[in-house]
Amino acid sequence: MIFNRETRDSAAAIPAPLLAWYDQNKREMAWRDAHNSYYTWVSEIMLQQTRVEAVRAYFDRFIAALPTLRDLAACDEETLLKLWEGLGYYNRARNLQKAAKLVVERHGGELPRDYEQLLALPGIGEYTAGAIASIAYGIPAPCVDGNVMRVLSRVTANCADITLPAVKRDYQALARELIPAGRAGDFNQALMELGALVCLPNGLPLCGGCPLAELCAAHRAGCELDYPVKPPKPERRIEEKTVCVLVCGELVYLQKRPEGGLLAGLWEFWNRPGHLSRDELCRELERDGLAVRSMHTLKKAKHIFTHIEWRMQGYLAYAEQPIPLPGGEWISLPQLREGHALPGALRAYSADLERWVQSP
DNA sequence: AAGACGGGGGG
DNA sequence: CCCCCAGTCTT
């Protein structure tokens, strides 16, 4: 256990000032205080690895399209992915629907009011199970995310590596001890809200407005920036790609990515590994049986994922005929906009496509 | 235990 | 341009 008795005793002073601060400073969120466990669940899945401000619009649109858990369970995957388009980590959406189907089959369409049963559902790990249990049902389960570990590591000036599973367990144990009777959901959200609004990463915590400043060991020692402790990040590999926006009249060529791996199941433009010259690209397209009427070079684009960097050379080609190519389809633009989810990585080229269609 | 899996914000 | 953020599932 990384927290000794003395540290845990002084941490007991956290809840009262934290809850008082939360009651005055919590942000409005459409999914808060709605007393709807489906809203809580959808929002918590969206909030994994994602900031509140980015989630708001996605949440509103998602709930408008799929107002109940049964609607989610019944919707088709294209609709689901379109609602998730641009949010990232697309397996979150797939698992959300898998779990919704299980809840309809096994739990009569209502999320179980039980931490272990929540944890057993796809896409719900320890954090999310704790969040739903405490926020939607008032169950005194801890919910420890990166915000919580940043706040608690600073308050306790703890230098254990927060990426280690054993260390996370100790933070969960500490957080569990601190939950005040009857206010589990508020306390958990208060810890995260403080991390998001005051106890900021990037080396600029706003300790002047922090309700915990006086009892924060890191602040009193003037070393807030030393916490939390994490190992150095791994290197990123670089992949060069050639992306060709293929157009024929009102049609554009799209292919569906494989069901597993990066950007699984999303749509993309014709592409090849490596940076191809105009001539190489023309030859490659002609090898697939496609006659090219004209070819335009688009700007290079870069997209950075967590562990991969795409360096893309773009082209836009007008095809003589919408010849079927292996693995893809010719789609009309309205059809693309309504029902085909493209990854954010290709945003530069889908914007080019929209521009060229308006003024070729 | 380590790697895969997106996208956004700030300096 | 660089940096940072960090839940869940798979292997």
UniProtKB/TrEMBL annotation:
The keyword DNA-binding does not apply. One of its GO terms (molecular function) is metal ion binding. Residues 46-197 form the HhH-GPD domain. It catalyses: Hydrolyzes free adenine bases from 7,8-dihydro-8-oxoguanine:adenine mismatched double-stranded DNA, leaving an apurinic site. It is an enzyme of class 3 (hydrolase). One of its GO terms (biological process) is mismatch repair. Pfam families: HHH (PF00633), HhH-GPD (PF00730), NUDIX_4 (PF14815). Keywords: 4Fe-4S, DNA damage, DNA repair, Glycosidase, Hydrolase, Iron, Iron-sulfur, Metal-binding. It comes from the Bacteria. SMART domains: ENDO3c. Gene3D superfamilies: Helix-hairpin-Helix base-excision DNA repair enzymes (C-terminal), Hypothetical protein, domain 2, Nucleoside Triphosphate Pyrophosphohydrolase. Its cofactor is [4Fe-4S] cluster. Belongs to the Nth/MutY family. Adenine glycosylase active on G-A mispairs. MutY also corrects error-prone DNA synthesis past GO lesions which are due to the oxidatively damaged form of guanine: 7,8-dihydro-8-oxoguanine (8-oxo-dGTP). This is Adenine DNA glycosylase. It comes from Ligaoa zhengdingensis. The lineage of its organism: Bacteria, Bacillati, Bacillota, Clostridia, Eubacteriales.
